[in-house]
Design a protein that fits this description.
- There is one protein chain.
- The protein is of the alpha+beta class.
- It has 2 domains: 159 residues, FAD/NAD(P)-binding domain (3-Layer(bba) Sandwich); 126 residues, no CATH class.
- 33% of the residues lie in helices and 26% in strands.
- It contains 10 helices and 20 strands.
- The strands form 4 sheets. Strands 1, 2, 9, 10, 11, 12, 19 and 20 form an 8-stranded mixed sheet that branches.
- Helix 1 runs parallel beside helix 5, helix 1 crosses helix 10 and helix 8 crosses helix 9.
- The two termini are 32 Å apart.
């Protein structure tokens, strides 16, 4: 059976659902189908993250991340409040643990202010009043940070989309793509969809979907696993607010941080180790085909040459628990190995260029038949409603509809 639709969205995470919402809120007359290969919404990156609504502190002024994060975070907070999703403005501290990190802390403050973030420099005595167990020489207080449950946001979006008239299909992978006139035919287990426009929000598989749809992606996806620990209940009082280290400016990762969750638990992490499968949540999850592709890829060799020291450090910290504990103790010296236990992981879809550079901004690529989201790591969850509106504007333009309606 074959059926015509205006827009087919591949991927039922935050971005796919937010894009479908933006399309239908602006143009209720559109037929929109969301295809998700898993049995639940937000099964991967959207449901395996730190649940932080970020402020926009870290991102280069003028970048897509910077433009979307600050306003996107406020929009996400309002959405949670309106749809009874738990949300709390917590603020956070970014802590310099040595004087050598002070220039980086100052640069971060300057960048945050350029992005419209409320930032205040704190002395050791000032931040000790808020976090007496956290070590450091100075800190930034970042007011514009909040916590939520992004898996629950996905469920709220799906419920809203049902009311808006979207067709939502779980357990429905896109099996193949064929051009047919001005439409793209998408084969699924149940039927074929003939879509005027394809929106690729497939995350860890976004480059593969782009290639299968007949487009040549400008980047390739390298999966990085982020592993978490949890502080045991009796020691949760060591940290009151989200506490972050000063990040390494060479890497698009924020470093191992400590995050009190809305349910009272306290999570530590994530690190960033190369995953051996696109859904490689454990070391034993290995995809031989993906590994063979990566080993043949010159981009991986360039990446390895550039970042091998970082890679060795991250892999060692993953495999040897005392090294992970040592890094946490730089922020909270009182914590002991027995105070923490391992607590799951997530996999980040990180775009890499052909010359081995880690892409540090969102990448949204538009072709005559499709819009491909090829890099949407943090703060994509924070910015997902704004990103969805941005993608919807591209779709309206492709379809020759009024862009102002978006």
């Amino acid at each position: 059976m074959s059926r015509a639709v205006d827009v087919a969205v591949i991927g039922g995470g935050l971005l796919g659902l937010a894009t479908a919402r933006a399309l239908l809120r602006a143009r209720p007359d559109l037929s929109v189908t969301v295809l998700e290969k898993e049995a639940r919404w937000g099964a991967h990156q959207s449901g395996h993250n730190s649940n932080v609504i970020h402020s926009g502190l870290y991102y280069a002024p003028g970048s897509l991340k910077a433009r979307l994060a600050r306003a996107g975070g406020e929009e996400m907070i309002r959405y949670c409040e309106q749809h009874e999703v738990p949300v709390k403005r917590t603020g956070k501290l970014v802590v310099a643990t040595s004087s050598a990190q002070l220039p980086g802390l100052d640069a971060l403050a300057e960048r945050g202010r350029a992005n419209g973030v409320t930032v205040r420099r704190l002395s050791r005595a000032e931040f000790a009043e808020r976090e007496p167990h956290v070590a450091g020489v100075a800190a930034l207080s970042v007011a514009d940070t909040a916590m939520t449950d992004f898996a629950q946001v996905c469920r709220a979006l799906a419920a809203e989309l049902t009311g808006l008239g979207a067709e939502l299909r779980l357990d429905s992978p896109a099996l193949s793509f064929t051009a047919a006139g001005d439409r793209t035919v998408i084969a699924t287990p149940g039927e074929e969809l003939r879509a005027r426009t394809l929106v690729n929000c497939a995350g860890l598989h976004s480059d593969k979907i782009a290639a299968a749809a007949g487009d040549r992606p400008s980047v390739r996806i390298m999966p990085f696993r982020g592993e978490y620990a949890e502080i045991r209940p009796g020691r949760r009082g060591l940290v009151n607010n989200p506490v972050y280290p000063v990040p390494d400016p060479e890497l698009p990762f924020l470093g191992v941080h400590i995050t009190p969750m809305l349910d009272g638990s306290v999570h530590v992490g994530p690190n960033a180790v190369p995953a051996l499968a696109r859904q490689g949540y454990r070391w034993r999850d290995v995809d031989p085909r993906m590994m063979a592709e990566l080993l043949r890829d010159p981009a991986l060799r360039h990446l390895a040459r550039r970042f091998w020291r970082h890679g060795v450090t991250e892999i060692s910290r993953s495999l040897f628990w005392p090294l992970f504990v040592r890094d946490v103790r730089r922020l909270v010296p009182e914590i002991e190995s027995r105070d923490m236990r391992r607590h799951g992981s997530g996999v980040r879809a990180q775009a890499v260029t052909a010359d081995g550079r880690l892409v540090d901004d969102f990448v949204i690529s538009r072709t005559p038949r499709a819009v491909h989201v090829l890099n949407a790591p943090s703060p994509a969850a924070t910015s997902s409603l704004r990103i969805g509106s941005r993608i919807a504007a591209d779709v309206f333009e492709q379809l020759g509809l009024d862009v102002a309606a978006a």
